[in-house]
Amino acid sequence: MTTRRNFLATNLIGAAGYTSIRRWIPAAATYPSQSSDRPANADTNSDRDFWNDWPNHIAGKMNDARNKRLANLATINSSTKVQERAAMIRSTLWKLLGGPLERTPLNPKVTGRHDRGYCSIESVIFESIPQVYVTANLYVPLSGKPPFPAILAPVGHSENGKAYSNYQHFYQNLVRHGYIVLAYDPWGQGERLQYRDPQTGGSRFGPTGEHSQAGRPMILLGDSLALYFAWDGIRALDYLVDRPEVDPNRLGCVGQSGAGTMTMYLAALEPRLRTAVVLEGNSENVAGPSYDPPGAVDDAEQNIVGGLPLGLDRGDLLWAFSPKPLLICYTTHDVGETYSPVYEEATKEIYRELRRVYDLFGRKGNVALLTSHLPHHLDFFSRHETYAWFDRWLKEGSGAADEAELDVFPEELLNATDTGQILSSLGGRSVVQVNSDRVRMVLPESRFLNASTDVASAQQHLHNALISLLSLPHERLPLESKVLSSNRCKNVSIDEIQFQSEPGIRVLGWFAKPSSSGTQHPTILYLADDNGEGVVDEPGSMCQLLAAGYAICTITLRGLGRTAPRMPRGGPNYYDNRDPLDDRFAWVSLALGLPVVGQRVWDVLRTIDYLASRQDVDLSQIRILGRGDVGLAAQMAGFLDKRVRSILLDRTLVSYASLVESYEYSIKLSWFVPGILRRFDLADISAALTPRPCWIMNSTDPNGNVLSEASVREHYRRRVNEGAFYAKHLRFIVEPEKESQESYLAWANNT
Q1: Is the pTM of the predicted complex or chain greater than 0.90?
Q2: What architecture does CATH give domain 489-750?
Q3: Rounded to whole angstroms, what are the CA distances from 751 to 63, 178, 196, 390, 557?
Q4: Where in 4-131 does DSSP place strands (E)?
């Protein structure tokens, strides 16, 4: 990523003139974001605790969503209303996930069979989606009379998936109890790795990492990785009921850890299940009690994007299952470790909700909660409670209480493939290929490909769609702007500025202008990944523009730089050594229906309001220069606000579609717009700026690598009429970084 030290060092004003700046620029170390408490060396009178703004803002939004949901639940006072809400939950969940998908032929194949005396273990492959192969093991009792009750067993986040010894032990004893068990690998685990390291043969990201790597780009499609996970489970159930040994009227589901969460999804979506057991799953609401941001967010398939504005949280997955028999097991060791610091409190809250719901049906005994005090593992007590639960509801209470020891079985014999990996044995489509195919299926043809397009109509359509996708606020409240500090060095006046974007969200920045004249200045709003600090560095990164008479305004968007959020106050083990805090804030914002990129675009729009309030800004000469990932906010805000005269994007992503199609990407989740690829791509925004100029400079791929001009033009040809390339408003440039200031000045002077 470009840092301010990489900027062109040419200094027309003179390095000597900047010697005093270091005296008054606040040092980053003085206001760290790593602590929830005010640092000992902070100025207690300066109110510069910017690290609290975003967490407090998110907490307020989350508590509002929580209170609204609880108020709604309080109105549910009959079994009929529960059933109506369950139907709403199911339909809403499918919509949020992006499904259901088409039930295509399973094409099942048994690739191996092993007789263990008490059962046979079959290795099975079926297609949940065309050319998407699911590897599974089917445990079939060798004693007793079929048809047998059957258990669907999604697996938790074990690297070796269904072959994990703890799970094998569980399945072996379920089959000894007279159940057929179907355990299957999810994407990213066992025989279904999607991002293999060619050197080691293992995953480059680990199971949870593979889930998030595949799941983040799906946000751009308006889909969720939970769609693929749940669909695998539904098609696995299709396979089960097609087996003659299975009683289709006695079906259960059980999963531990991440599979416990998937059991919750399947409980909501799959009506054929008669009973379910959730073992140490993510049984806590995102909008849960004692909320402290970012709260109970996790890897991609465990977060219900866009659910909270619709009153849908994790607990509602189990609401939809009522009044069917449901057992929830959790361990106190997961509090602040595997799950959030309020995991136990939040799980008990969901259980109390369910007790009330089941009581409305007169079935309070159909739901139970088991507490374990052992580490996160499918432990002895949970296993025994599960056997007894299934025996009670699927076998009318019959079943042995004992448990056999693990029958050690080599992992390689459980494999359904020759190589131990689907992609190297059968090929088929990887998750990246499936997502790429979905892009081609859902992305509409651009309105800017046709030379006869009604441009004004197309612009308005895109304008309205972008506002909706970004979930921008409806009201602009007073800015409450202030100048925190001022100084003047040779030929340059610099203000340290602050204003309020939304209640409690303080936007920080710098406003630098030539001090030789008191007139209104043409102004460039400079948005960069380094928060624009290079402007006031020595030598400054915008010296040529300042010398040419331009004022430069640069800001820190929320969640970046000095406004980066503090760490949560509790459960350090849950937040340490995991996904970066930035990723977690992005997920929780998506759950709230408030994508971070939309929040930051709003900061940019309010900055334009701030510039309009200054007497030294020429309102007809406001331009935006966006550099790096922050350029995405610059591009969107510049299109939405017609007060912006022109835009230059430097080292910014060329296309969201290219990100979905990439196995690797470095851009953070906070810049993803949910569902944007169901409407348009970034090139459409550039095209919609017409007749305002838009220069695309050093456009990048998803890893930040600068693309050739030919490659950039090819991306744009897919979305923009060829004639636009020659129109004044679109221009493509590829130049060495050392020449960036010359290009910036040429853009400002010619647009």
Answers
A1: yes
A2: 3-Layer(aba) Sandwich (3.40)
A3: 46, 77, 47, 72, 26
A4: 109-115, 119-129
